[in-house]
């Protein structure tokens, strides 16, 4: 940080920089452990100044989680080109790597360790929905997933499954490699979509 | 309750009866809304007596959630006889009906609205694992699901997917019938197991 803090930053730039630091700290600790005191110490500035930027601890947590969610969405964006399943493959690979790199903070969000905060829970739910809906937005021609009520449900399920699988795999890989994990997740999408086409439709 | 309260019950029987009432109240409200006061009013006994049975509010919540979890496990037990997928079908049908009938309380557990209580979270996780592991215990011959690290992962994912699908479906059925939902969930299991057999193994 030494080089950048010497430059005069606008308050918006300074706030963004502090949020990035918050996101970085969240990678290896839970949200409960991410205090204003810790951020102040790591940033080398006063607690008072942090309260000036963020108002209170809850608003600070909300802003960090929103920034982390934006990062996750950006980092897992599928490439613009390529065959549909290859693009899903790239996106899922990025997701697995993101969860591995940011395990503690991610886990604390999933577990709702945010102490039942509705606004943070809402950011989490919106991010998860966004990542699922991307399957429909990114493939408007419906080449992987036709857009029906049943496939919408199944894609939500696939998103939940993906999260659970990655967290279970990090906890106990049991010899399953990262590439196998990614292959299972990618192939699960067309397999589950296939089920909606076999099962009786409403 | 009138008939039974006239009978002299042992403290254990009385406690179990109070827990059943708690589980019943939890069906239509969140855990946060299930207070000792409410139970006292519904049971027609004093708050003091409830504290005598349960110690404190947290222990009361823990006992109610454990009882609800035991009920869920019992009600979704697959029948002893029948073809493997028919038994999964019966179990999933019972699960869907259980979540519909106990929606508020179930949702509050899933959302971690328990205010981040570790012990209640642990009951929830154990119940979910149990329901997934049943696929292996109930089919020791491996006729649906061979027992490998990859299928263990996939079954955990399928359990998470099942929960997410049922809750999403209750929130917005969008014309998907209960029978279609059950068919999708049941058929997803062999479809996902099939994926582990196609994907490269470690």
Automatic annotation (TrEMBL), chains A, B:
<dbReference type="InterPro" id="IPR054129">
    <property type="entry name" value="DesT_TetR_C"/>
</dbReference>
<keyword id="KW-0804">Transcription</keyword>
<dbReference type="Pfam" id="PF00440">
    <property type="entry name" value="TetR_N"/>
</dbReference>
<keyword id="KW-0805">Transcription regulation</keyword>
<dbReference type="InterPro" id="IPR009057">
    <property type="entry name" value="Homeodomain-like_sf"/>
</dbReference>
<keyword id="KW-0238">DNA-binding</keyword>
<protein>
    <submittedName>
        <fullName>TetR/AcrR family transcriptional regulator</fullName>
    </submittedName>
</protein>
<feature type="DNA-binding region" description="H-T-H motif">
    <location>
        <begin position="35"/>
        <end position="54"/>
    </location>
</feature>
<dbReference type="Pfam" id="PF21943">
    <property type="entry name" value="TetR_C_46"/>
</dbReference>
<dbReference type="InterPro" id="IPR050109">
    <property type="entry name" value="HTH-type_TetR-like_transc_reg"/>
</dbReference>
<feature type="domain" description="HTH tetR-type">
    <location>
        <begin position="12"/>
        <end position="72"/>
    </location>
</feature>
<dbReference type="InterPro" id="IPR001647">
    <property type="entry name" value="HTH_TetR"/>
</dbReference>
<dbReference type="InterPro" id="IPR036271">
    <property type="entry name" value="Tet_transcr_reg_TetR-rel_C_sf"/>
</dbReference>
């Amino acid at each position: 940080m030494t080089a950048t803090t010497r430059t005069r930053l606008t308050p918006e730039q300074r706030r963004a920089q502090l949020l990035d630091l918050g996101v970085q700290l969240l990678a290896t600790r839970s949200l409960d452990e991410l205090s204003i005191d810790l951020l102040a110490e790591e940033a080398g500035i006063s607690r008072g100044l942090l309260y000036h930027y963020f108002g209170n601890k809850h608003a600070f947590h909300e802003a960090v989680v929103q920034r982390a969610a934006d990062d996750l969405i950006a980092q897992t964006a599928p490439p613009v080109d390529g065959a549909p399943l290859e693009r899903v493959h790239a996106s899922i690979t990025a997701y697995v790597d993101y969860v591995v790199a940011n395990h503690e903070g991610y886990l604390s969000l999933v577990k709702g360790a945010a102490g039942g905060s509705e606004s943070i829970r809402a950011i989490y739910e919106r991010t998860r929905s966004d990542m699922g809906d991307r399957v429909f937005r990114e493939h408007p021609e419906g080449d992987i997933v036709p857009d029906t009520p049943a496939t919408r449900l199944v894609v939500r399920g696939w998103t939940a499954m993906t999260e659970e699988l990655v967290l279970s795999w990090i906890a106990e890989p049991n010899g399953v490699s990262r590439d196998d994990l990614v292959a299972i997740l990618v192939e699960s999408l067309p397999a589950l979509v296939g089920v909606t086409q076999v099962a009786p439709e409403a």
